[in-house]
Amino acid sequence: MAIKTLREQSYLVLLALAPEPLYGYGIIAAVRELSEGRVKLGAGTLYGALDRLADDGLVVLDHEEVVDGRFRRYYALTGAGREALDAETERLAALAAKARRRLIDSGSRPRTSPGMA
């Protein structure tokens, strides 16, 4: 079975979980750092993504704990999640390499629309 292409947010969530299990806020902070502030996940978006990733067998609930009276659920990658992350990383690297070659091949010729001088 071919692994489907991941949405950017899902890819970043998996990437955030690659080193170790994290809880919600930890995932949000890691995604913000990985994307250099470009992707800011809200709680609803994060937990929707985690639900989809769990349904697809890519993440699991690792453990739960209470810290300072607040409940935390830690999520971890599954083996399938690691495979999906690796496959998507390879796909993106190949796409970036093709983009670089295409840009180099096009040189520095400026493109103009017809009728523009």
TrEMBL record:
<dbReference type="InterPro" id="IPR036388">
    <property type="entry name" value="WH-like_DNA-bd_sf"/>
</dbReference>
<dbReference type="Pfam" id="PF03551">
    <property type="entry name" value="PadR"/>
</dbReference>
<dbReference type="InterPro" id="IPR052509">
    <property type="entry name" value="Metal_resp_DNA-bind_regulator"/>
</dbReference>
<protein>
    <submittedName>
        <fullName>Helix-turn-helix transcriptional regulator</fullName>
    </submittedName>
</protein>
<feature type="domain" description="Transcription regulator PadR N-terminal">
    <location>
        <begin position="13"/>
        <end position="86"/>
    </location>
</feature>
<dbReference type="InterPro" id="IPR036390">
    <property type="entry name" value="WH_DNA-bd_sf"/>
</dbReference>
<dbReference type="InterPro" id="IPR005149">
    <property type="entry name" value="Tscrpt_reg_PadR_N"/>
</dbReference>
